Amino acid sequence: MPRLSTARQSLARLDARIAAESDARRKAWLTTYRNHWWGEVIGDVDMVMDTMSHGPISYTFDGHPFMSADESLARITDRAGTRAMYEGVVALGVRMAGPFDDERVLFDEHGMALTCVLSAVYPGTFLARHSEPVDPDGIYLIRWPNVTTIRFDAEGLMMGEDIINGAPIRVQQVDRSQVDMLLDGPLPAA
């Protein structure tokens, strides 16, 4: 079984990678990504939006083998659409992101890619396409391989994300009392 980091452990590894990076542009991109991801983890939409471009924005998302992709992602082209997407996730009462493990960061002249194993906790109702029966009222820890590519604008802000998800490597029902421990603490009060 691959290790299961907490979000703070994932954050510490990102911070160490940023500190070790000698290329100023890569360091800036990685810092922007870290701030974006951490805003997703803690449910801070304003923090996420501070990392987003003021120009065109686009998202591609292939969904999960066990979850249906949201068709509205293809229509996101600007900050207003991006904010609405993130506010919609927060309104569902789930975290926008969770911890990751086995990460690798790759750069080219346009941006970066992060490959990793992602973890999240989702309600059973999100798992409509999962191959095994799930309790729609249950809460599930899910782990899956992920590749996310990110383009940056001239100011070093994110122009969206291209997200590719692999088949789940773990889908495990968990007790509601375990959720905060698994993801490093409760969401801040709205």
Q: Biggest sheet, in brief?
A: 6 strands, mixed
How many strand elements?
A: 6
Shape from CA axes? globular
Order of helices and strands: HHHEHEEEEEH
Poorly predicted tracts of residues = none
Fill in the keyword field for this structure.
190 residues; alpha+beta; 6-stranded mixed β-sheet; 6 strands; 27% strand
Description of the molecule:
The chain has about 190 residues and is of the alpha+beta class. The protein is about 30% helix and about 25% strand. It contains five helices and six strands. Strands 1, 2, 3, 4, 5 and 6 form a six-stranded mixed sheet that branches. Helix 1 runs antiparallel to helix 2. The radius of gyration is 16 Å and the shape is globular. About 25% of the residues are buried. The mean pLDDT is about 85.
Give a brief outline of the structure:
This protein is α+β, with helices and mostly antiparallel strands and 190 residues long. Helix content is 29%, strand content 27%.
Which helices and strands, and how do they pair?
Blueprint: H1 7-20, H2 24-42, H3 45-49, E1 58-61, H4 79-91, E2 100-107, E3 111-123, E4 139-152, E5 158-165, E6 170-174, H5 179-183
Parallel strand pairs: 1-5
Antiparallel strand pairs: 2-3, 3-4, 4-5, 4-6
